[in-house]
Amino acid sequence: MKRIIFIIFWAMSSSIWAQEKETAKDTNTLLYYLKNGKWQGHIRNYLMATDNGRKELTDYYANALGIDIHYETTHWKGFTAGFTTSFVYNTASSDLGKPDSLTQQFNRYEIGLFDLAKPYQALIGRIDELYLSYAWDKSKLVFGKQKLITPWVNPQDGRMRPNFQEGIYLDWQDVKNLRVEMAWLYRFLVRSTEKWLSIANSIGQYPSGVTPDGVRSGYSKNLSSAGLGIVGVTYTISPLIKTQLWNYFTENIFNTTFWQIETEFSLQKESSRKLLLGLQLHYQTALSNGGNSDPNLAYIPKNQRNWALSSRVGWKNENSQITFNYTRIGNLGRFLLPREWGRDPYYTFLPRERNEGFGDVNAFMMQYSQNISKIKTKIELAYGHYILPDARNTSLNKYAFPSYNQINANIVHQFRGILKGLQGQFLYVYKGAVGELYEDPRLEFNKVNMHLYNLIFNYNF
């Protein structure tokens, strides 16, 4: 915490001192570039509540208030430097460190607003970004702590503070219609945690489920990896068709490949009505011994491989869109990718649940969205039906999760006038049981037959 405060004080005092001492002629000094840097701020308040349905099961609530400050210098011969620091405060909550009396399981959702490892810590401070960037033409090279957005490694910013990564990242766009992204990452700052961790130790910060044999997974802090290599190529075939290919190489643990192609085209000439089509293919293989020679301590079983397919068809016009989505995950094993690194990129993904960690999955999802431009409001309604392996089939079900259906209703409003910069959001989620629960409340608690309420306000300045 002291280190964070020192960095803020140093940057602000340097900028102020520069303003006092700088002259119009001194445009090629460090003080000039500090003075002309850009500050940005963001305040977020998040109220979340879980209703677990049955009276015997514990309900939860929490309200978090956070602020983050970002500073970036102006350009000097293509170079810029920047940092972001953030604070989150628990203004009010139920007891997030006390297990449910019936299941002896802990809170799942509200604790994610704070630090998973420290449920009773009221104030959390982090250094999110600290980087040096060099840009040329349409490309850039970034070294340090930064935020990447890729299909499988992404911010997953559905709580207070998102994921950040540390390493070197290249974004090359010097050829028309072609974008090449490459990264070598060696540390992660995982959402809902406070400390930067190695790639290996970042895996297992969230609940780790069981092994294919039904033994509690022990890979947390027991994996070995030199880092994560990412290569992504995006090519715009035509104004109507775009494709991308990504590969994620987690040294000594696993390799995952992702391919996607999407198109949209007008149904009639000069019409805003468009047909949407999308297709994804995923393929994964274990590397070496999956991170540890002991199968109970490995992240992925040795020699395991699996595949997934996701598709979309939809229709949109200027203000509305409807999509029908389907995902099939193969039955060769469990398709894995650390939940700590980002959310699923499947077309059937809905906020507050995932299909990572399962095999032999059939998922269906329909979503409708409507923009009401006159009042700057967007409404989204979605229904998903997710057919998973039996909750007791540990070879294909890592988290003992029953098949379920899910309803999401989301409203986002942009305020105007004196409140310009303020955004309000309300997200309601219901998940109902479809699969067998075996009269076991552990298969129900925080998973199905539950309601989740989210009220969020963001203010950018």
Verbal overview:
It is a single chain. This protein is mainly beta and 461 residues long. The protein has two domains: 1-36; 37-460, Porin, CATH 2.40.160. It has three helices and 19 strands. It has helices spanning 2-21, 30-35, 199-202; strands at residues 38-51, 60-72, 79-93, 123-136, 139-146, 164-172, 178-189, 197-198, 228-238, 241-250, 254-266, 274-286, 305-316, 320-329, 361-372, 377-387, 404-414, 422-433, 450-460. It has an 18-stranded antiparallel β-barrel. Strand 11 and strand 12 (274-286) form a beta hairpin. The radius of gyration is 23 Å and the shape is globular. Keywords: Signal, Transport. It comes from Raineya orbicola.
Helices and strands, with pairings:
Layout: H1 2-21, H2 30-35, E1 38-51, E2 60-72, E3 79-93, E4 123-136, E5 139-146, E6 164-172, E7 178-189, E8 197-198, H3 199-202, E9 228-238, E10 241-250, E11 254-266, E12 274-286, E13 305-316, E14 320-329, E15 361-372, E16 377-387, E17 404-414, E18 422-433, E19 450-460
Antiparallel strand pairs: 1-2, 1-19, 2-3, 3-4, 4-5, 5-6, 6-7, 7-8, 7-9, 9-10, 10-11, 11-12, 12-13, 13-14, 14-15, 15-16, 16-17, 17-18, 18-19
